Amino acid sequence: MATRYLLGFDVGSSSVKASLVNADSGKCVSTAFFPEKEAPIQALKAGWAEQEPDSWWQYAKQGLQKIMAEAQVKGDDIAAIGISYQMHGLVCVDKDLKPLRPAIIWCDSRAVPYGERAFRDLGADRCLSHLLNSPGNFTAAKLAWVKENEPDIFDKIYKIMLPGDYIAMRLSGVANTTVSGLSEGMFWDFKANQVAQFLLDYYGIPASFIPDIVPTFSEQSVVSEAAAAELGLKAGTPITYRGGDQPNNALSLNVFEPGEIAATAGTSGVVYGVLGEVNYDPKSRVNTFAHVNHQLSTLKPQTSNLKPQTRLGVLLCINGTGILNAWMHRNVTFDMGYAEMNDLAAQAPIGSDGVCIMPFGNGAERVLQNKELGCSIHGLNFNKHNRSHLVRAAQEGIVFSFCYGMEIMQQMGMDIRKIHAGKANMFLSPLFRNTLAGVSGATIELYETDGSVGAAKGAGMGAGIYSDHNDAFATLEKLQVIEPVEADRAAYAEAYARWKETLEQVL
After folding, report:
1. Digit-coded pLDDT (tens) for 406-433
2. How far is 93 from 96, CA to CA, in rounded Å?
3. CA 158 → CA 45, 145, 153, 299, 441, distances in Å?
4. Helix, strand, coil percentages in the chain from 3-state DSSP, rounded to 5
């Protein structure tokens, strides 16, 4: 039998990545991303961020051509396609499915007043109990901005899409979306289990703008004749999965069940946990969306391997994560590499001998109810502390901010037992890993993973090639396991309590 391959796209704001995975071995055979320098973001005014949707398509096409040539794979060999994408964006298309304006992407903040006004007018209780979030700066609020400021464009809208929906549409010629995608845009009512009509009515958005809804894992559409000719694919190849970048990162780390956590710690950090019941934070300090395996009985076509179930992704974002560690590197340990810097930090004791650092120097933090505290250092004694204490306190402060947010998740009913992460960025630091395990009590598992590879595996699930997520990720390479060291738990708990007390004083 001919080898089957799965194609995954990861549509980011800096690049689009494409990967080919051997469906039988589960191994990635080729991967590429375009552009090789960071993709441009248009900012016509302060706080704006836009990209041309067609640029994502061109980057995807370039990446696909490179990996197919490198792996010597033909279009006939690809069994299914999956898509991961930057969340919360807005693409508006006309009746010919052509974009009416550049996409308003995730980091564009122009819609903040529109979300705040809706939250105030509709009421916090109604928004949180139905949307599980404030309307905030999400896709629905961005569309409300277009309605008020660009009425000529608004009047021409046929459908609105997320970035992943747009790429699926370019592949198939069919516009559709998922419950997970709608939930990240604030278009999904979890109490009514349908599109959030009350929010559409408030903003004056026609329900017809919402594309047809398909299950996350299913034959959502197939590659059209036109796209097949343009890309070198086979017409009729099924598109069987799509997910936003954070849910997809969790999928890539095999995080599907309640209590499991996917974490990243780059410039900013994300802790994404799975909840098995509908709940929300009454202060909206974390965001809650439908996870990729949140499954409704009412959606057709149903897949054979997924039963109706509640699976929500609770997302905590900390802006001041790796950026603090990088600042320490540039300004305090500039004569060292990061590995030496980690060794230096380990010379200081757990708790950094009383030094606490608040890592909030990269803008307002949602976990602090959008307060902008700035970074601050506390407890510094010129006679006994040196730079080892500062570097350790920085890494501990980042971990403690994660744990502060994870306590909110626990208050929502999440039993945090295991943290999955890629072995990259802050997770390269043994001190960072041991502190996170020590404070949270969770086991940390580090993997070699990638968003576009995860999207390809998701496609295999949606196409029925894999029986379930454990089958799909059976070959996921576990690089390291970090267990909490019981002898150190008390010292970590004392250090965290001191940090949290300091944070409350700062607040």
Report:
1. 999 999 999 998 999 999 999 999 999 9
2. 8
3. 27, 17, 10, 23, 50
4. 40, 25, 40
